Amino acid sequence: MSDQGKPKLKVFIKPQFDEAHEPDGLDVVLSIESPDLAEGSPIVPFLSIDKPAVIKDGVKCSDEEGELPTTHNALDNSAGLSWTVGRQTCGEVKFEYRGLLGSGLAIIPTPPADKIYRNIVEWDLSEAPDGTRAVWTFGEGPAPVERIGTASILSDSVYMAGPVHSNPPTPITGSISDYYGYYWFGNLPPTVEVIKDMHHALFLKICDFFEETPSASNPYRGFARHTGPRKSFNGSSFTRSHIFDYEDQIAEAEDYDLVRRLAYEVAYNWLGPPVTDGIDWLYKGIKNCLSIYFPFRNKFRTGHYFEATINMLCTRYYTSPLINLPHEELLKLVPTDESAKELLLARASAFVVSMDIRTRWLAVGKIMWPVEDLAIKPFSKRRATGEPHGIEEWIELLQPLLGEETRERYEDMLAGRVILIDVRLFGGGGSHILKQTDMEFLDFGMDRESFEEGVVRGLKAGSRAEQAGLKEGDRIVKSSYLWRCVDHFEEKMTVAIEREGVEMEIMYWPRGFEMAKSWQMVKVDEE
Is the dihedral of CA 405, 408, 413, 418 positive or negative? Predict the structure, then answer.
């Protein structure tokens, strides 16, 4: 069947604005060409409804016979909802609703089947303020933008409408804007401005690494989103795009923190499962590994960045209080425990980096970057063609070089045994080594949930938090980034609290008194 013969799946979006001309929501019409659904069949699911992203009671559904009765039910093991039809459908089905700005996962419902569609996104800006722009991962509106593929293309992508700024500033046919763009609202903070300026150049270098040529049919777009006072320093990756969320405290983040986040998120484009599949620890480890190399190897940052990033990963892993927890138990904790989530990423990084360094020594004079050439690049190709690309394939690809050591390393990790990285690091001139260093375990001195709930809970007697003056029940007004304390050994935690009507600021070092055997990268003449 030619592309023109494929059924249409069209999204028509009309942004709504408040009296101050600020984006206030989206009126969305999803049209499905002749789905031929029997009574009781699911029409569309919203995979994620939160905040809420969709006003579910305002949904209208119709087909060529008129109003189409529907019911909605919660999806199993999901925060989403699914709508089913109350009678046999006739012809084109339209699903209309009001949503809020966000990713497709939150605002665009899609048919559950793997059917191939002509996915079309069109915008109506007729009532929008002057200067309004409308952007989708695969192109800028308001004219229709079409993409052939499954319906997941619509949900696993990003939508943005309003007074949008971008790099390049305006779309010009035949220029880089055909395949690339970086978008944001308002004025970017200086730290994020730096990331915006290097984003396109880094993207091109990563394309070269994965042997891909960017084009209008194979675009990539990044989005920066200010979340206000709500704590946020993270990214969400989608097909051919990502969103970087930052908040009012972004000035506390250092340049290297943002560069690592940028390299990690862009690498997602070629690695890992779709965003709806949850955490895949192996791919998290691979992306963290590449976030060490890409900025340094391509001269976006100096060797100091490389050293600082190795030391950050070592600190995050070796000083985790959960370091010896078996992998299966760790995975059970990840959905609800931030410390477990941090260790999972750190352990995955140590697993990949340790194998990378080990294989480099075994392949001296043969392959310069064995893990990248033998496993990472083949993984990206397997993902693109739908072939298996999990831990068993990883072991298989590296076995010719590492032998049974590959599986032994994996089994040691599953058992929670500490992963050791070759102290010689990458060879060459031998200018740097890993030096064993005793470092205090991470310890915030209270339940981690305290910072989310805004109240000190589970304060540990004798902890540095208690010694600094914090008390059980103190109301937490504001605190510094927790992740900075996880990644940076010397980082202090600043907590603004209210106690009996009096506000005060308390600073302490979120480390315990028990020592962990950690490692840090140092110059040979400094050991």
Answer: negative
